[in-house]
Amino acid sequence: MRRIELRSGGERTVNVFADNCIVNRILDLEESRPDENWEEDRKYLMKLRYGPVASGKIKLFINPSVVSQVEATPDPERRKELMAVAEQFKFIEFNMTIFPFSFPAHFLSTTQKAEIQKLCMQHPALARDEKILADAAFNERIEVLLTTDRDLVGQGAQLGKVRIMLPKQLWDYYTIDG
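Predicted structure:
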């Protein structure tokens, strides 16, 4: 397993694609719940938030599909809070599946589309996140897809060149100095 060391001098930034579950969890970091997975995610998201994310060693990315999911949140108060989280963390939008924000544009190849469709067939619940998975997995700038979906992480933990990780795994995977 490749290990990247992050030094306090800011020599290296790790680009992490956050799925919608992560955006939701970040909003609720101050809550405590009687759920072991929730508490683990909460603990490590807080460590990431106040450590490498705050220092710029880890940069969080989302695509417009995540923003669309947030905008579709039925509860207006919750929707407003989720949008504030996205703005607070300065998530950077980009995508390969809807409209490219950078040119020259790179769209998914037939092989890449097939790989995503195969994963979604194996895990039907992922079909709604097909664009998010594609944008994370096949963008040259992204190294990690951060999720709370333990089923997805348990399936080999890699899509394309991108490692799929839970918050604890991201914290443990990288050596954070400083």
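Summary: The beta strands are 5-6, 14-18, 58-62, 92-93, 144-146, 158-159, 162-165, 175-176.
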